[in-house]
Amino acid sequence: MTKFVAITMLCMLAFSSNAHDKSHMNDEKQITHIIHQIKYGWENGDGKPFRKHFLDFKGARYFESGGQNVGLTDLVEHHVEPEKDALVFLNLDFSNIQIHIEDEFAWALADTAVKGEVRKSGKTFDKTGFQTFLFKKVDGDWKVLHTHSSSRNRK
Amino acid sequence: MGHALQTGDKELARAQLASDVMIYEGGRVERSADEYAHHHMLSDMKYLAAMKSETLEHQVTILGNTAISASRSHTKGTYKGKERNYQGMETMVLEKQNGKWKIKHIHWSH
């Protein structure tokens, strides 16, 4: 009897641990997918991924090298979408993505490389830097709460 | 943390950081509290001692054992003969460890 109880408990523990690992993997997968969608949005001047994956709330702030967008609409309409016309091209790469999950909160860090050409001046830029993403789980889906990026000219 | 850096309190500044803190600053990275304490912390202290910094906006959100802080400040002053006048942004992630909040991540930019 004791043996049976011990085996049952071990099975339950293994199942629970496996379920936790799977859930963690799903969370990481979803967050990585969102980061890739954000890359797509920036590169194509498309606000849809931002509207879908960002949490729209009054205090939302998005920082970029000493500047900020106040709220999701400001980010999309005054930053993401205008870049489609302002730039000939934009290549944005996120690498070395590290995701940390704490219950309903997650944060991700990434190395960034960004290249582009300004349509008006013909000037090109080639920068490297870092990106911080903060996420909150809302009704089972991860939503971006805040972003912060900074970069400098590639050496 | 900001107060400790501005007043040059090395012990207090170091004590705020988790040992595995990741610090992004001006396109550079420091990957631990020891690395930061032995590299840029002292120059940051000298620099901030020469500057006047005013917080313009600061938001803190606590989610269980994690907290996030996002702030914007205005910094002005002269350092090594150069005049500085800029807006700076700071993002922090903190974690409660043994009842004390420790900084796990800082992102500074201006």
UniProtKB/TrEMBL annotation, chain A:
<feature type="domain" description="SnoaL-like">
    <location>
        <begin position="89"/>
        <end position="150"/>
    </location>
</feature>
<dbReference type="InterPro" id="IPR037401">
    <property type="entry name" value="SnoaL-like"/>
</dbReference>
<keyword id="KW-0732">Signal</keyword>
<dbReference type="InterPro" id="IPR032710">
    <property type="entry name" value="NTF2-like_dom_sf"/>
</dbReference>
<feature type="signal peptide">
    <location>
        <begin position="1"/>
        <end position="19"/>
    </location>
</feature>
<protein>
    <submittedName>
        <fullName>Nuclear transport factor 2 family protein</fullName>
    </submittedName>
</protein>
<dbReference type="Pfam" id="PF13474">
    <property type="entry name" value="SnoaL_3"/>
</dbReference>
